[in-house]
Write a structure and sequence with these properties.
The complex is a heterodimer of chains A (499) and B (439). Chain A is of the alpha+beta class. Chain A has 11 helices and 21 strands. The termini of chain A are far apart. In chain B, α1 (4-19) runs parallel beside α2 (75-89). Chain B is α+β, with helices and mostly antiparallel strands. In chain B, the strands form 3 sheets. Chain B has a 6-stranded antiparallel sheet. In chain B, β9 and β10 (314-315) form a beta hairpin. The chains are: A alpha+beta (499), B alpha+beta (439). At the A-B interface, β2, β3, α4, α5 and β5 of A face β2, β3, α2, β12 and β13 of B.
Chain lengths: 499, 439
């Protein structure tokens, strides 16, 4: 049924490309059903089987993903990879309880087997019949592509890695090694549920990244730079090559001048952009409603309470065009949307999936996302950022007598219940008497979510989303996200360093 | 489970690849299944079950190299996929170091079964599995008014794979695992809801501890109530066996050919030099029967063997696969370690703590990272203050910062309590003079 997938460059059957590319939304679900080799009557039968033990709700999630990678090492583009992933998952809800099973084939026998396994979560014996089959038509595609990755051969991608390598070497004589990589993925999602909602979503993704290794006076340092969007091949331009090359060289070179600071509690100025990692870790995860409905988040009793300065607004947004974290629909049929989680300093909304929105009796927020068809949807962030404030970054820095400025990060983590979060600072600067002085590097910062949020005392007007390749992990599931922030002062965090 | 049909398909894929332009190839077919039952407050929250099958191929085409994978195993579709893969690979630059391993290095078979698969796997009653998770929760539910939530789970799985190379290797591996866990959240100070957990995991169902998991999780969360940070400074650090492997990770990453050849390793050019204290005696023991991680061949098919990694602090080996061996012009060793054993001492964590006058006992890491070029690290931690050999104040929201080589040179004691069933058998460890930042 998917025989024609074999066409060169791993393309889709031509007959369905138009509809699947998002240009003709009207018949998208019909075309997608054809692509996956299923009919409306098949789907209804599987949904009915899923509910035969008395579940309240069931959904089917079909996924077909084509991913490619190509990389450069030692000046040569000499390694590539490709993967095809295909399957469908059946979920059954009975109250807050979930039954889930997936299969890698879509024969009636396989789908029914999955449905019967997932159905076992319920034992009410009550009979629920799936209702109708109505397409949720996409009104505003947030990631329409000009040139789909399925139509791009490896040959066309190679020059962008070679150019990046050459540019980086040309920029600095201290460069010893360059690694460059281009990943693209195209995911086709067909969804339907027992409430009669169905949709098709075409999800492109590209990530272009580089690692630079430099040597100075016998010392080695490395750093990385990347950009990621839901875009097609039109993303690849000479400009993006230049931007990445300059960024990675500057970031790596800075490390030779950098030292480890003296550790302890101090004011931290978060530079605009990637500092959104603070929001992601300090509050974003703890606002995810699965933790709150289970009462295990430090924010479980703080809904509608003031949690920080009244000038602060924090958003989790699935609607930014081409953003890595954007979703036309989440993975359980809810339209992508922009959600204020903190408005005027008040915690206004958790990030909901279907289970939690029902639990709280509120409208879903479109945060029910899954890694692949192998996983159940759970509340996940999208693009999480703070809106602009009204002061200048330099005015924030000038208020700090002794502290640090940080703007380049690698990773973070949080304990949802205790609220302790951390993020790792790849580089930044000391602040001495209101001025940026000595560069610093390789230190972890640790704080407590509610306390850190309450300690944000100044927010600048330079709001910025960081479009690096941010990937969030939760319950063993990976999820593409982004984060952003204007420069802001956190009056006290614990900074790693020497004593 | 790998079937005869799977093996025939793997051979078919190999033949097709060679017929359509590959000079050599490696084909791996895998089959996995897993099931999990997650309970909240002893009631079923989520049940999940699935099995999967897929194929990975490494194709060598006219001196060029690419890797391809799919879970679409119909022959007609595979044929198109493989032909397209071969065409794509031809666009790449040649890489003369990309070759299959020399056949003389392959595992040739004939060794005794490593006993990694429980033949009872399919016979265990699913109701009993749910009961195990329920019992873990019931050990603690209702025992204390501070308890907010108890999550518990039972999960198991099997994975098997079959590997075939065009220059004569074929090998099969199969393993099972069984695991139970519990996590308890309690009301803490203010809005805090600290949680902690415990888990047990074994390759054989019969060996899986079936009691005490909930109790242990509850003890672990209770003892950390009242956490706060203490004064910054240098402390002796004892790390428990749940967490000691975290500190070994960067030392091992620095030993791979991929890091060394890219000059991205703080242990570059350090073979046969002292990079850790004499207490650091780490050996790769791939042939221990019934032990997680044991294997007779690596992912290239190369025969594994017992190998000293650090001997009394002296670095004895790098992990060099066929590719990096050619690229670096050095002899290959093995692509990765299998089952690492740090030579144990004679005390458990409590014994190591008892020997410390003033220090910090680490029971959890929270984020952090290590610079792969320099070995400089900084990690968030939680644990306990040690005063006169006793755990006193629970600690959180602090960082440790230092350099990996300096740290491992300050290793003064090794415990005897590695986590069973871990492929890294790393006991509790004591390090002197570690920088902690807090107040």
């Amino acid at each position: 049924m998917l025989g024609s997938l074999a066409a060169p460059s791993f393309a889709l059957p031509e007959s369905v490309q138009g509809a699947l590319g998002g240009t003709n939304n009207k018949s998208a679900v019909a075309a997608a059903m054809k692509h996956f080799g299923v009919t409306e009557s098949d789907l209804k039968k599987v949904l009915a089987a899923a509910l035969e033990k008395g579940g309240d709700y069931a959904d089917l999630y079909f996924e077909h993903t084509f991913s490619h990678g190509v990389s450069l090492m030692d000046g040569k583009v000499n390694n590539c990879d490709a993967n095809i992933d295909f399957g469908m998952g059946v979920r059954v809800l009975s109250g807050d309880q979930t039954g889930y099973a997936y299969v890698e084939g879509v024969s009636m026998e396989e789908m029914l087997r999955a449905a019967q396994t997932a159905a076992r979560i319920a034992s009410s014996g009550k009979s629920v019949k799936p209702v109708g089959f109505k397409e949720n038509v996409l009104k505003n595609n947030r990631y329409s592509v000009v040139t789909p990755w399925e139509e791009v051969s490896l040959k066309a991608k190679i020059p962008y890695l070679q150019k990046l390598n050459d540019k980086i070497f040309a920029l600095d004589a201290r460069v010893r090694k360059v690694q460059a990589r281009l990943n693209d993925a195209t995911t086709h999602v067909l969804f339907c549920n027992s409430e009669g909602v169905s949709y098709y979503d075409y999800r492109p993704m590209v990530s272009y990244s580089t690692v630079c290794i430099m040597e100075e006076s016998g010392k080695m340092e490395n750093n990385f730079a990347s950009r990621s969007y839901r875009k097609g091949f039109e993303f690849m331009t000479d400009d993006i090559v230049d931007i990445l090359a300059h960024e990675v060289v500057e970031k790596t070179a800075l490390l030779f001048k950098a030292v480890k600071p003296k550790g302890g509690e101090m004011p931290v100025v978060m530079g605009a952009g990637g500092s959104g990692i603070l929001l992601h870790e300090a509050i974003g995860h703890a606002f995810e409603a699965d933790f709150n409905r289970k009462k295990v988040s430090i924010f479980s009793d703080l809904l509608n309470k003031k949690v920080c300065d009244e000038h602060i607004n924090v958003v989790d947004d699935g609607t930014i065009p081409f953003n890595r974290g954007s979703v036309n629909f989440d993975d359980e049929g809810v339209e992508g949307q922009k959600t204020y989680i903190v408005k005027n300093g008040v915690l206004t909304s958790y990030l909901h999936d279907r289970i939690s929105s029902k639990h709280y009796g509120v409208a879903p927020t479109g945060n029910g996302r899954r890694d692949t068809f192998r996983n159940v949807p759970i509340p996940r962030m999208r693009a999480t950022y703070m809106e602009a404030g009204n002061v200048k970054e330099e005015d924030i820095i000038s208020t700090v007598k002794k502290g640090i400025y940080v703007d380049n990060f690698t990773n973070g983590q949080v304990q949802i219940g205790a609220g302790d979060f951390t993020f790792f600072v790849k580089s930044g600067y000391l602040i001495e008497d209101g001025k940026l002085t000595q560069p610093i590097k390789d230190i972890n910062i640790i704080g407590n979510g509610p306390k850190a949020l309450a300690a944000i005392t100044m927010v600048a007007d330079n709001d910025k989303i960081d479009n690096g390749t941010w990937t969030c992990g939760k319950d063993g599931q990976s999820c593409p996200v982004t984060c952003g922030m204007p420069s802001a002062l956190v009056s006290k965090l614990t900074v790693g360093g020497e004593s | 489970m790998i079937t005869e049909k799977n093996k025939i398909l793997a051979q078919w894929v190999m033949d097709l690849a060679l017929k359509n332009g590959c000079q050599s190839a490696k084909v791996v077919l895998y089959a996995n299944s897993n099931a999990s039952f997650e309970l909240r407050d002893a009631k079923m929250d989520r049940l999940q079950q699935a099995s999967e099958n897929g194929l990975n191929m490494s194709l060598y085409v006219d001196g060029r190299y690419g890797t391809y994978s799919t879970n679409r195993l119909e022959k007609k579709e595979l044929e198109g996929f493989i032909k397209t893969a071969i065409e794509s690979t031809r666009y790449l630059a040649p890489d003369e170091s990309r070759v299959l391993s020399d056949p003389s290095r392959y595992y040739k078979g004939g060794k005794p079964d490593l006993k990694l698969f429980d033949s009872e796997f399919y016979a265990i009653n699913p109701d009993r599995k749910v009961e195990l998770a329920r019992e873990a929760a019931e050990e603690v539910l209702g025992k204390d008014s501070r308890i907010i939530s108890v999550d518990s789970s039972y999960s198991d799985g099997e994975s098997s794979s079959y590997c075939l190379t065009s220059n004569g290797f074929s090998g099969e591996s199969k393993t099972s695992w069984f695991s139970t866990s519990a996590s308890v959240s309690v009301k803490g100070e203010g809005d805090a809801r600290p949680s902690s957990g415990w888990y047990e995991s074994r390759l054989f169902y019969g060996q899986l501890p079936k009691e005490g998991i909930g109790t242990k999780a509850f003890e672990r969360v209770l003892r950390k109530l009242g956490q706060k940070k203490v004064q910054s400074g240098k402390y002796t650090m004892v790390v428990d066996p749940m967490n000691s492997g975290r500190l070994l990770g960067p030392m091992l990453s620095a030993l791979y050919g991929s890091s060394l050849q890219q000059k991205n390793s703080f242990l570059l050019n350090k073979l046969d030099t002292q990079v850790a204290s004499e207490k650091m005696i780490l050996t790769d023991e791939p042939h221990l029967v019934g032990a997680n991680g044991a294997r007779y061949f690596d992912n290239e098919g190369v025969a594994t063997e017992r190998r000293a990694v650090f001997d009394r602090g002296v670095l004895k080996t790098y992990f060099i696969d066929t590719y990096y061996s050619k690229k670096m012009g050095v002899a290959p060793t093995i692509s990765s370690p299998s089952l690492l054993i740090l030579k144990p001492g004679d005390k458990d964590a409590a014994g190591l703590v008892a020997d410390v006058q003033k220090g910090i006992f680490i029971t959890g890491f929270n984020g952090g990272n290590c610079n792969s070029s320099t070995g400089d690290f900084s990690y968030g931690i939680e644990g306990f203050l040690i005063e006169n050999g006793k755990l006193t104040q629970p600690i959180n929201e602090m960082n440790i910062t230092g350099n990996m080589v300096t740290l491992w040179k300050s290793l003064v004691a090794v415990g005897n309590d590695p986590r069973p069933s871990s492929s890294w058998q790393i006991p509790s460890l004591t390090f002197e003079g570690v920088d902690f930042s807090g107040l």
